[in-house]
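Journal club prep — side note

Before the paper discussion, L.F. wants everyone to see what a predicted structure for a comparable chain looks like in token form. Sequence:
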Amino acid sequence: MVNDDVVLIDEPAPKVRRVTMNRPEKRNALNHALRGGILNALREGDADPDVRVQIVRGAGSSFSAGYELGGGNAGLDMPYYTPGGDGQWPRHVTEGWMSIWDLAKPVIAQVHGYCLAGGSELATGCDLVYVAEDAKIGYPAVRFGVPDMHFHAWLCGMRAAMEMMLIGDSMSGTQAVELGWANRAFPGDQLDGEVVRLAGRIALIPTDIAQLNKRVVHRGMEVMGLRSAIRVGTELCALGTKQETLREFVEETRGGLTEALQRRDEPFGDYRTVEPHD
């Protein structure tokens, strides 16, 4: 196993490469270094002729609790260029996660523990999603702002999406499969083995064929408007930053981010143990 600080890379089966997010003490909060490390590792694997399928997972207790909000980006540059102006941040992160769609080789998200906000965006950008039955998947940031990447209606249907966007409650891994956001759910202690097993089956398909079949599915979604909707959503996210509610929340965080998040979520009775990420 090679340790590149924020990501670990190994090959658990022939032609299968696994990228492990390695900030377990922060529940794999997605700071600039980790986001860049994930995408760079996936691109390297995509260019490697000995790799046919890749897995993204999280070290420790969670897949990812979301974007780094607690100062973990201090001194770090954004990992790739995105034109500036209003909406730069949501355009930046959605361009990154959607670039996974454009890779030739299938990418699997292996989700356990918390998969919140930006973590759910990363998983959504992957081609397949396998989850632990008791995973907690959600977007609590809708309680003070507008998400960066609006996948909800496309993958979960209008009614479920509306509830997710208006309340911000999490769903379990089992519920995520029922709604169509994830492919299959497994008991947590079986997740690693099952994902490697399924990745091994995918790896039986030569890349020249797999990449075309991957694109068939994605192009179908794009023709129906998914990619355009996500881009429109980044503009709504930018508009959300101008709202009084978000300004008040940002001001409140000056007295302590963790405390502000706890006050946000306390009426809902959830997310109490999560570090300051979204």
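L.F.'s comment for the group: The mean pLDDT is 94. Keep this in mind when we get to the figures.
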